[in-house]
Amino acid sequence: MGDRIAEFDEVLLTNDTWFGPVRPYGAVFDRMGERSVHFWGMTDHAREEPNPFTGKGVLPYHLQSFWIAVRREMFLSEEWARYWRELAEMPDYFDAVLKHEAVFTEVFAGHGFVHDVAYPSADYPTDHPALFNADLLLADGCPLLKRRQFFHYPPYLDRHAVIGRRVVREVADYGYPVDLLWQNLARNVAPKTLNADAGMLEVLPDVDTGYDPARPFRIAVIAHVPDPARIDDILATVGRLGQEHVLFVSTHDEAGAARIRLRLDEAPAAERLRHEVRIVPSLGRDMSAFFVGMRDVLVGGEFDLVVKIHSRVPKKRSANAQRYFWRHQTDNLMAGPGYVANVLALFQREPGLGIVMPPMIHLGYATPGKGWDYYLPRAKRIAADLGIQVPFDGVSPLAPLGGMWICRPEALEPITRHEWQVTEFDKPTKRRRADLARVLERLVVYGAGEAGYHARTILTPEHAGISHVSMEYKLDQLASTTPGYPIEQIQFLQRAGWVNKGRALDLLRMYVRLNHPGIVSRVRPVLRPVRRAVGHGIRFVRRLVTGGRS
To answer: By its UniProt entry, which InterPro entries does this protein fall under (predicted)?
Structure first.
C-alpha cells in the first residue's frame, strides 16, 4: 500500500487459516473499538514451557497472527517499519510460528505498545481455545472458526478430545454455509485426515428418515460381472436399491453376455428393468470396465448418481473372509430401500458430497497400516499427470478399497477427463507391483477432492457394531506393550521404524533409530547402495538356481 496506509485508522492483518464470519463481526468491532490499545487480536495463546515446537525453551504468550488489528500510532512507527524490514524468511509453517507469530506480541509490547484480545484464553478451559474450544468461542460470539481442527494430525486432536463433527453441526446451526467449508477442505486437506478430524462416517438406519421423493436422482447402476453365474447375486443386491435406475452390466465375452441377458429378461419386474449388457476386455478388471467400458455413462450427463458394484470376490482369502467382504461392500452401500433412501438424502442435503463408500475393511484383512503400500509412488505420478493436487495421506488413502461406491459423475471428472484405454491397464502377474486398476481405486476420492467434492464413509448399524468392537479389541491389544496416549504410542513406533521379522538385526536397527537417530541419518547414504547391491546379488543367484523361472 505504501504511503496510502496513513489514510487509515486501523489495519487488519489476517490470513486464510479461518472460516467466517460464523457469528456477526459487529459486536466484536464495537467492543474492541472502545479499548485504548495499539493492537488487538481475536484470540491468544498462553505461554508454554517447554516450547511444543522445539521441545525446549519457552513459547511466549502471544496474540494469534491469523487476526491482528493494528492502529495508526503503531503501524506508522519506526518500530513497525523495522520489524517488517528485518523479518527473516519463513518458508514453512513452523518458521511462520517461531519467527513471527510467537514473537510479534512480545516485540511490540517491549516497545511500549499496548495490546488486548477479544477472546482471551484465560476465559477458557485450555491454553489454545481457537483449536481446542471452538464451540465455546462461537457460543461467546467469536465470528471466526480456525481451519486447523479439520487438518491437524488426528491422534493429536484425539488426545485433546476435539470433536470436529460437533463443531461443524454448530457452525451450520449458526447459519454459516457449510458447503463452502466442505469444498475448501476437500481441495486442501488429505481426505483420510479430514474424514477422521470431521467425523465423516455416517451410521445410517434402515428406515427412511429424510429423503425427499419429490427430488429424485437419475441413477445408473454399473455392475461388472466377469462370472455370469454371479448375476443373481448382483440382481439381489440391486433389488435392495428401491429407486428407479438403469442397470449397466459388463462382462468379458459374448457367451457370458448372452447368459446375463437371458437372466435379466427372466428377472422379476423385468419389464420395468432398463438394462444394457456390454462386453469389455478382462484387462484391468472392474476398474477398466468402469472407466473405459462405461465412460459414456460417466461423462454423458444423463445421470445424477452412479452406483458402482461388481461380483468379484478376493481369491486369496479364506471362505469366511470372502463372504464378509461381499457383505461389507454391498450391505453398507445398499442394505435395503430405507437405508438407500438415507444415503440419497445425504446427497440431497449436501450438494458438495461427491462420493460415499464403506470404510476400510479390517475383519479378515490386514489392510490397515498399508493401504498405500507399494502403490504410492505410481499413485503420485498419475495424480500429477491428472492435475490432482489434493494432499496425500501418509499411511493409507481414504479409498473404496473394495471397488464399490456411489458417486456423482462430476466428482470423477479429474479422472474421466483422461480417455483411458484398456491397453494402459496392467496384465495380471504374481509379482508385487502397482497395477493401474488398484492405483485408480486409491485415487477416486483424491480426484473428487480436486473437483471440490468431499467424501463420506457409510455403515449400517449392524456393521458399525461388528466393526467397532473388533477394532476396539485389536487396538487394545496393540497398545498393551507401549506406554502413553495413542499419539505417543504411534510416534514411538513410527520412530522405531519397520519391525520386519523381529530378528536381532531388525531390533538393533530399531534401537539405533530410537536412541541414536543422528547415526541413522549419517549412515543411510552409505548403506543404501550396499543394500541395493546385495539385493541385486540375491536376485542374480536366485535366477541362476531357478534357471530364470520366477
So the answer is: RgpF
Going by their DSSP bridges, the two strands 353-357 and 305-310 should be labelled as: unpaired
* pTM for the whole structure: 0.91
Cell matching residue 326: 461381499
pLDDT tens string 410-438? 999 999 999 999 999 988 777 778 999 99
**Residue 369, SS3?**
coil
Contact 357, 260 (CB under 8 A): no
pLDDT (0 to 100) of residue 530: 58
Prior bond of 21 cis (ω within 30°): yes
Three cell numbers at 56?
525446549
Strand-strand pairing, 405-407 and 353-357: antiparallel
Residue 352: phi and psi, rounded to 5, are: -95, 5
* pLDDT attached to residue 319: 93
CA 283, distance to chain mean position in Å, is: 29
Beta carbons within 8 Å of 142's beta carbon, 6+ residues apart: 22, 23, 28, 42, 43, 118, 119
Instruction: Kindly compute the dihedral angle of the four CA atoms of residues 131, 132, 134, 137, in this order, to the nearest 10 degrees.
Output: -110
Query: What 8-state DSSP symbol labels residue 391?
Result: P
Within its chain, how far is the Cα of 287 from the centroid?
21
How far is residue 240's CA from residue 336's CA, in Å, rounded to a whole number? 5
Q: Mean per-residue pLDDT for 247-274?
A: 88
pLDDT in tens, 295-335: 999 999 999 999 999 999 888 889 999 999 999 999 999 99
Top-confidence range, 236-240, 406-410, 500-504: 406-410
What is the C-alpha separation between 495 and 93, in angstroms, rounded? 22
Give the residue among 68, 88, 96, 78 at the shortest CA–CA distance from 12.
Answer: 68
Give the side-chain half-sphere CA count within 13 A for 426.
14
Burial of 171-193, coded b for 16+ CB within 10 Å and e otherwise, reads: beeeebebbebbbbbbbbbbbbb
Residue 83's alpha-carbon distances to 78, 98, 144, in angstroms, are: 9, 15, 27
Q: Residue 397 CB: number of other CB atoms within 10 A?
A: 24
Instruction: Report whether 456 contacts 201 (CB < 8 A).
Output: yes
**Mean of all residue pLDDT scores within the chain:** 93
Q: What angle do CA 88, 90, 96 make, to 5 degrees?
A: 105
Q: What is the band of 261 on the pLDDT scale with cuts at 50, 70, 90?
A: very high
Q: What are phi and psi of 52, to 5 degrees?
A: -65, -20
The residues facing 246 across adjacent strands are 220, 274
Query: Which grid coordinates are listed for 408?
Result: 456423482
* CA dist., res. 390 & res. 399, Å (int): 14
Which phi and psi (to 5°) does residue 222 adopt? -110, 115
CA distance 243 to 216: 9
What is the rounded distance in angstroms from the CA atom of residue 120 to the CA atom of residue 118? Answer: 6
